[in-house]
Amino acid sequence: MRGFSETPRDIARELARKYSTMTHEELDTLESILVPMKFSKGEMILKEGQQCRHIYHIAKGLVRQFYFKNGKELTEHIGVDNSIVMCIESLFKEEPTRLQVEALETSYIFALPKQKLEEVALHNVNIQILYRKILEESLIQSQIHADLIRFETAHDRYKKLCSQMPQVVYRAPLNYIANYLQMTPETLSRVRSAIAQE
Questions:
Q1: How many CA atoms lie within 13 A of 151 on its CB side?
Q2: What is the C-alpha separation between 82 and 90, in angstroms, rounded?
Q3: End-to-end CA distance of the chain
Q4: pLDDT of 6 over the 90 cut
Protein backbone atom coordinates (compact mmCIF):
# COMPACT_ATOMS: atom_id res chain seq x y z
CA MET A 1 0.00 0.00 0.00
CA ARG A 2 1.60 3.23 -1.15
CA GLY A 3 2.14 5.81 1.57
CA PHE A 4 2.26 3.16 4.27
CA SER A 5 5.27 1.01 5.08
CA GLU A 6 4.07 -1.63 7.54
CA THR A 7 3.73 -5.15 6.18
CA PRO A 8 1.12 -7.76 7.17
CA ARG A 9 3.95 -9.38 9.20
CA ASP A 10 4.46 -6.13 11.14
CA ILE A 11 0.72 -5.96 11.84
CA ALA A 12 0.58 -9.62 12.94
CA ARG A 13 3.44 -8.87 15.36
CA GLU A 14 1.69 -5.73 16.60
CA LEU A 15 -1.53 -7.66 17.26
CA ALA A 16 0.41 -10.45 19.01
CA ARG A 17 2.23 -7.88 21.17
CA LYS A 18 -1.04 -6.25 22.17
CA TYR A 19 -3.26 -9.28 22.69
CA SER A 20 -1.41 -12.60 22.93
CA THR A 21 2.11 -14.00 22.60
CA MET A 22 2.52 -16.25 19.56
CA THR A 23 4.84 -18.85 18.09
CA HIS A 24 6.38 -18.25 14.63
CA GLU A 25 3.83 -20.67 13.17
CA GLU A 26 0.94 -18.79 14.75
CA LEU A 27 2.31 -15.48 13.48
CA ASP A 28 2.50 -17.03 9.99
CA THR A 29 -1.12 -18.15 10.30
CA LEU A 30 -2.33 -14.76 11.55
CA GLU A 31 -0.40 -12.95 8.82
CA SER A 32 -1.93 -15.23 6.16
CA ILE A 33 -5.52 -14.17 6.98
CA LEU A 34 -4.90 -10.39 7.25
CA VAL A 35 -6.49 -8.40 4.40
CA PRO A 36 -4.80 -5.01 3.75
CA MET A 37 -7.20 -2.19 2.81
CA LYS A 38 -6.87 1.53 2.17
CA PHE A 39 -9.69 4.05 2.45
CA SER A 40 -9.57 7.71 1.42
CA LYS A 41 -10.92 10.48 3.62
CA GLY A 42 -14.73 10.42 3.47
CA GLU A 43 -14.87 6.89 2.04
CA MET A 44 -17.29 4.42 3.59
CA ILE A 45 -15.74 1.28 5.07
CA LEU A 46 -19.12 -0.22 5.89
CA LYS A 47 -22.57 1.04 4.91
CA GLU A 48 -25.92 0.58 6.58
CA GLY A 49 -27.56 -2.60 5.27
CA GLN A 50 -24.26 -4.39 4.63
CA GLN A 51 -23.18 -7.32 6.77
CA CYS A 52 -20.05 -6.82 8.85
CA ARG A 53 -17.80 -9.81 8.11
CA HIS A 54 -14.50 -8.47 9.47
CA ILE A 55 -12.81 -7.14 12.54
CA TYR A 56 -10.97 -4.04 11.32
CA HIS A 57 -7.57 -3.18 12.79
CA ILE A 58 -6.75 0.47 12.06
CA ALA A 59 -3.00 0.43 11.45
CA LYS A 60 -2.95 4.16 10.66
CA GLY A 61 -5.86 6.52 10.29
CA LEU A 62 -9.05 7.78 11.88
CA VAL A 63 -12.52 6.32 11.46
CA ARG A 64 -15.93 6.90 12.97
CA GLN A 65 -18.82 4.55 13.52
CA PHE A 66 -22.25 6.18 13.40
CA TYR A 67 -25.95 5.59 12.83
CA PHE A 68 -29.07 7.58 12.04
CA LYS A 69 -31.87 8.08 14.57
CA ASN A 70 -34.89 10.27 13.81
CA GLY A 71 -33.00 11.73 10.86
CA LYS A 72 -29.98 12.68 12.99
CA GLU A 73 -26.46 11.24 12.83
CA LEU A 74 -25.18 9.81 16.11
CA THR A 75 -21.47 8.97 16.47
CA GLU A 76 -21.03 5.76 18.43
CA HIS A 77 -17.27 5.28 18.23
CA ILE A 78 -14.15 7.02 16.90
CA GLY A 79 -11.17 4.78 16.20
CA VAL A 80 -7.57 5.87 15.72
CA ASP A 81 -4.14 4.27 14.97
CA ASN A 82 -3.67 0.78 16.46
CA SER A 83 -7.27 0.31 17.49
CA ILE A 84 -10.08 -2.02 16.46
CA VAL A 85 -13.46 -1.25 14.96
CA MET A 86 -16.31 -3.63 14.13
CA CYS A 87 -20.10 -3.80 14.11
CA ILE A 88 -20.33 -6.53 16.72
CA GLU A 89 -24.05 -7.37 16.43
CA SER A 90 -23.90 -7.69 12.64
CA LEU A 91 -20.67 -9.69 12.88
CA PHE A 92 -22.12 -12.34 15.21
CA LYS A 93 -25.76 -12.45 14.13
CA GLU A 94 -24.66 -12.38 10.47
CA GLU A 95 -27.33 -9.77 9.74
CA PRO A 96 -27.22 -6.39 7.97
CA THR A 97 -25.86 -3.61 10.17
CA ARG A 98 -27.62 -0.39 11.06
CA LEU A 99 -24.23 1.19 11.78
CA GLN A 100 -21.93 2.81 9.26
CA VAL A 101 -18.16 3.17 9.35
CA GLU A 102 -16.45 6.08 7.59
CA ALA A 103 -12.79 7.06 7.17
CA LEU A 104 -12.17 10.58 8.56
CA GLU A 105 -8.58 10.54 7.27
CA THR A 106 -6.80 8.37 4.72
CA SER A 107 -6.82 5.10 6.66
CA TYR A 108 -4.75 1.94 6.33
CA ILE A 109 -6.68 -0.99 7.72
CA PHE A 110 -5.96 -4.69 8.09
CA ALA A 111 -9.14 -6.72 8.19
CA LEU A 112 -9.45 -9.99 10.08
CA PRO A 113 -12.21 -11.98 8.36
CA LYS A 114 -14.34 -13.49 11.14
CA GLN A 115 -14.84 -16.82 9.38
CA LYS A 116 -11.12 -17.39 8.76
CA LEU A 117 -10.21 -16.12 12.23
CA GLU A 118 -12.58 -18.64 13.82
CA GLU A 119 -11.22 -21.46 11.64
CA VAL A 120 -7.58 -20.79 12.60
CA ALA A 121 -8.51 -20.16 16.25
CA LEU A 122 -9.73 -23.76 16.49
CA HIS A 123 -6.16 -25.03 16.00
CA ASN A 124 -4.13 -22.18 17.55
CA VAL A 125 -4.72 -21.43 21.20
CA ASN A 126 -2.91 -18.07 21.13
CA ILE A 127 -5.01 -16.88 18.18
CA GLN A 128 -8.06 -17.97 20.20
CA ILE A 129 -6.82 -15.78 23.08
CA LEU A 130 -6.21 -12.86 20.67
CA TYR A 131 -9.78 -13.22 19.31
CA ARG A 132 -11.26 -13.27 22.83
CA LYS A 133 -9.21 -10.27 23.99
CA ILE A 134 -10.23 -8.20 20.95
CA LEU A 135 -13.89 -8.92 21.73
CA GLU A 136 -13.38 -8.12 25.42
CA GLU A 137 -11.73 -4.81 24.53
CA SER A 138 -14.60 -3.91 22.20
CA LEU A 139 -17.23 -4.65 24.86
CA ILE A 140 -15.32 -2.69 27.51
CA GLN A 141 -15.02 0.32 25.15
CA SER A 142 -18.79 0.24 24.54
CA GLN A 143 -19.43 0.12 28.29
CA ILE A 144 -17.01 2.99 28.99
CA HIS A 145 -18.75 5.15 26.37
CA ALA A 146 -22.22 4.26 27.69
CA ASP A 147 -21.17 5.10 31.27
CA LEU A 148 -19.56 8.36 30.14
CA ILE A 149 -22.85 9.49 28.56
CA ARG A 150 -24.98 8.16 31.42
CA PHE A 151 -23.12 9.42 34.46
CA GLU A 152 -20.69 12.24 33.60
CA THR A 153 -21.24 15.99 33.15
CA ALA A 154 -20.35 17.53 29.77
CA HIS A 155 -17.17 18.96 31.36
CA ASP A 156 -16.08 15.56 32.74
CA ARG A 157 -16.98 13.72 29.53
CA TYR A 158 -14.60 15.91 27.56
CA LYS A 159 -11.83 15.71 30.18
CA LYS A 160 -12.05 11.90 30.21
CA LEU A 161 -11.93 11.77 26.42
CA CYS A 162 -8.79 13.97 26.49
CA SER A 163 -7.07 11.59 28.92
CA GLN A 164 -8.28 8.31 27.38
CA MET A 165 -8.15 9.15 23.65
CA PRO A 166 -5.92 12.23 23.15
CA GLN A 167 -5.30 11.45 19.45
CA VAL A 168 -9.05 11.56 18.78
CA VAL A 169 -9.26 14.99 20.45
CA TYR A 170 -6.35 16.31 18.31
CA ARG A 171 -7.45 14.83 15.01
CA ALA A 172 -11.22 14.37 14.82
CA PRO A 173 -13.45 17.26 13.64
CA LEU A 174 -15.08 19.01 16.60
CA ASN A 175 -18.64 18.34 15.42
CA TYR A 176 -17.97 14.57 15.56
CA ILE A 177 -16.35 14.82 19.00
CA ALA A 178 -19.39 16.77 20.25
CA ASN A 179 -21.70 14.20 18.69
CA TYR A 180 -19.77 11.31 20.24
CA LEU A 181 -20.00 12.98 23.65
CA GLN A 182 -23.71 13.71 23.04
CA MET A 183 -23.48 17.47 23.33
CA THR A 184 -23.91 20.34 20.89
CA PRO A 185 -20.82 21.91 19.26
CA GLU A 186 -21.68 25.10 21.22
CA THR A 187 -21.59 23.21 24.54
CA LEU A 188 -18.27 21.60 23.55
CA SER A 189 -16.81 25.04 22.74
CA ARG A 190 -17.89 26.34 26.17
CA VAL A 191 -16.43 23.25 27.90
CA ARG A 192 -13.12 23.60 26.04
CA SER A 193 -12.89 27.30 26.96
CA ALA A 194 -13.61 26.55 30.64
CA ILE A 195 -10.98 23.78 30.73
CA ALA A 196 -8.41 26.06 29.05
CA GLN A 197 -8.90 28.57 31.86
CA GLU A 198 -8.57 26.03 34.70
A1: 7
A2: 22
A3: 44
A4: no
